[in-house]
């Protein structure tokens, strides 16, 4: 199973954002979560919704988590292709050493 660390998924942050909570409020609800991590995930979600790629290595790693989380679900062939394309683009934008256990799933294997 692919998950975000430290135990807070992009989906959870998105649901908190839909309720109108900011990063500080989310971090206080999840007292084991650093506010800076929540801000990173919020920024990652903005990249997802804006169809943009982050420019820093650390932001690219965080952004890859949203796509890896999607791989935990049954995806249509089109969505699976999109997720894999995004993961490949993120990998190209960062050094290989930062991508342990982050390879996209081959199409048709999920």
Q: Poorly predicted ranges (pLDDT <50, ≥5 residues)? A: none
Head-to-tail CA distance between termini: 12 Å
Which structural class fits the helix and strand makeup?
mainly alpha
How many β-strand runs?
A: 0
Largest sheet: none
Q: What share of residues is helical?
A: 55-70%
Mean pLDDT: 82
Gross morphology: globular
What is the strand content?
A: under 5%
Radius of gyration, in Å, reads: 14 Å
Query: What is the H-and-E element order?
Result: HHHHH
How many domains? The number is 1
Number of helices: 5
Structure notes:
- With 110 residues, the protein is mostly helical.
- The protein has one domain.
- Helices cover 56% and strands 0% of the residues.
- It is built from five helices and no strands.
- It has helices at residues 10-18, 23-29, 35-50, 57-70, 77-92.
- Helix 2 (23-29) packs across helix 3, helix 3 (35-50) packs across helix 4 and helix 4 (57-70) runs antiparallel to helix 5 (77-92).
- The longest helix is centred in the middle third of the chain and has 16 residues, at 35-50.
- The N and C termini lie close together (12 Å).
